[in-house]
Amino acid sequence: MTTRITLKSDKLVKVHELIAAGQKIKAIKAVRDSGRLLSDDPTMPPGKIGLREAKLAVDNISGQPTPTAFKLVSDW
Questions:
Q1: Which of 18-27, 30-39, 59-68 has maximum average pLDDT?
Q2: Are the CB atoms for 48 and 59 separated by under 8 Å?
Q3: Which residues, at least 6 apart from 41, have a Cβ–Cβ distance to it below 8 Å?
């Protein structure tokens, strides 16, 4: 199951820029500050994003896929 983290499109672009610049920690902080958790899994509380979820999402888009994938998507 892939859990989605939504970000406003400008914030998602910023996260991609930070990753490209090698600033992974700042990218994780941006995801935690601006993202919103969307999951169909009832065991995961909606809304708040933890450090683990943000790191896994950033790893996923930076080419380091993880067994429990968190996917960053644009919020319309």
A1: 18-27
A2: no
A3: 1, 3
3-state secondary structure the chain: CCEEEEEEHHHHHHHHHHHHCCCHHHHHHHHHHHCEEECCCCCCCCECCCHHHHHHHHHHHCCCCCCCCEEEEEEC
Among the listed residues 40, 32, 28, 36, the one whose alpha carbon sits nearest the alpha carbon of residue 3: 40
Q: Note whether 72 and 57 are within 8 A (CB).
A: yes
- CB 28 within 8 Å of CB 55: yes
Q: How far apart are CA 28 and CA 43, in angstroms?
A: 23
Please give the Cα distance from 13 to 1 (Å, whole number). Answer: 25
Question: What radius of gyration, in Å, describes the C-alpha atoms of the chain?
Answer: 11
Predicted pLDDT of residue 42: 65
